Amino acid sequence: MQERDFSARTSFPGSTGNPFDRALHRALVLQQIPAVPFALLLFLIAFLVFQTRWLWTAGLFAFFCLDWILIATLPKAGKSFGPSHPTVLALAVLRALVALLPAAIAIPLQIVGILLVVYGFWIEPHTLRVTRQALVSSQVPPGQSFTLLHLGDLHLERITRREKQLNRLIQELKPDLILFSGDFINLSYLKDPQAWASVRSLLQEWSAPYGVYAVTGSPAVDLEEIVPILLDGMPIHHLSANVATVDVHGIPVNLVGLDCSHMPFVDGPRLRALTAHLPGHLTILLYHSPDLAPVAATCGIDLQLSGHTHGGQVRLPILGALFTGSLYGRLFDAGRMAIGPMVLYISRGIGMEGAAAPRVRFLCPPEIILWTVAGKES
Fold first, then answer.
1. Same domain, 280 and 234
2. Cβ contact 110:65 at 8 Å
3. Which of 73, 123, 152, 222 would you call most buried, defined as having the most Cβ atoms within 10 angstroms of its Cβ?
4. pTM to 2 decimals?
C-alpha cells in the first residue's frame, strides 16, 4: 500500500477545529433550547409533513416524543451521558423523510425505528465483546507463545455496566500484556474532575504480569495537561515517542509507542527515527490512528494496534461504516488487514464519540481484542 501525501491539508481528524469537530460542538447549542420550545419545534416538523391532516401530524409527533423519552432517559438509567436535543432532532428529520413514503411502508418503518433506537442506544453500546486474534511470527521461538490484550477508545463519561464488564473481562482473560491505544475521556467531559476520578478508578484495576502500556490518543481528547493527572500513580507505562523492550515468557518484544498528531507527514519521520536501530525482535507499534500504517509497514513493525475510528459506530450491511475519522476514508475502518509484511488491527473501541454526537452503536459493538502471539511450528 502506497503512503499518501497529506501535507497540503489544513484540517485533520482528531484535532480541534476540523469540520467534524466544529459541527459536533455547534450542534450543542440545540441543548440550550428549553423543553417547551423544543417540543414546538418537533411539532412544527410534523406539521410541515402532514399540515392539517391532524391525526397523522399527531402520530408523527408521538414518534418524535417517544424518541425524545428514550434518549433523554439514558443518563438516568446510567447508560450514556450525552445531550438529547441534537440526536432527537436528527431522528425527527429522518422520520419526517420516512413519513413522505406511502403509509403502508412508512408506518411499519416508523415502528421499526423505535426498535432500532432501543437497540442502538440502549443495548448494543453495552454489549462488550472479546475478539480473538492470532499472530504467528518467526520472531517468536517455535512452540512458545504469549497473550496480549488490546484496549482502545475508552471515552469514559461515567462508569457504567460496560466499564465494570471491561474490568471483569480483564481479570478473567488474564493476558500477559495489556496495550491501550489512546482516548481516555469522552469529548464532553475533558475538564470534568468526576470523569477524571472515574478513569483513575478504572485504570488502577488494570494489571498484567508483564505490564500495562498506553499511548495518548487524539490531541482533541487526550489533552496534554490532563493525561498526567489521569496516569499519576497508575500501574501504567506511558509510551510517548519511545520504545520499551519487554521479555514476555523469555520472548523479547519491542513495544513502540508514539503519540498521535493525526498528521502522517509529521509522525512518519518520528517513527522512522524511533525504529531505525531497534533490536531484531518482534516489534509492536501502539499508535492511536491507523493512518500511519503505510509508513509503519516500512519500519520493521510486525503488528500495529490502533483505534480512533470506532468502526464508524454505525454500520450498514454490505456498505459498512457510514463515517470514519481516517484520512484514508473507509479503507481504514475496523478490523484486521495486511499492510505489506505488517498486520494492522483497528479496534472498534470501548466507548463512543462525544459532544453532540449520538451515543449510538449499530452493527458495531464495542470490543477488546485478545491476541495470541506464537512462533511458527518447526
1. yes
2. no
3. 152
4. 0.95
Domain that holds residue 119: 19-124
Last residue of a domain, one of 95, 124, 153: 124
List all residues 6 or more positions away from 143 whose beta carbon is below 8 Å from its beta carbon.
Answer: 375, 377, 378
Whether the CB-CB separation of 295 and 261 falls below 8 Å is answered with: no
Per-residue pLDDT of 278-334, as tens digits, reads: 998 999 999 999 999 999 999 999 999 999 999 999 999 988 999 899 999 999 999
Angle at alpha carbon of residue 148, lines to 190 and 332, rounded to 5°: 60
Average pLDDT over residues 159-167: 98
Sheet of strand 335-339, all strands in order from the earlier edge strand to the far edge: 242-248, 251-257, 282-286, 303-306, 342-346, 335-339
Residue 36 neighbours by CB under 8 Å, 6+ apart: none
Q: Do 286 and 244 touch, CB atoms closer than 8 A?
A: no
Residue 377: per-residue pLDDT: 81
Give dist(CA 293, CA 299) in Å, integer: 10
Residue at 10: amino acid letter? T
- 347 residue type, one letter: S
Are residue 76 and residue 175 in the same domain, yes or no? no
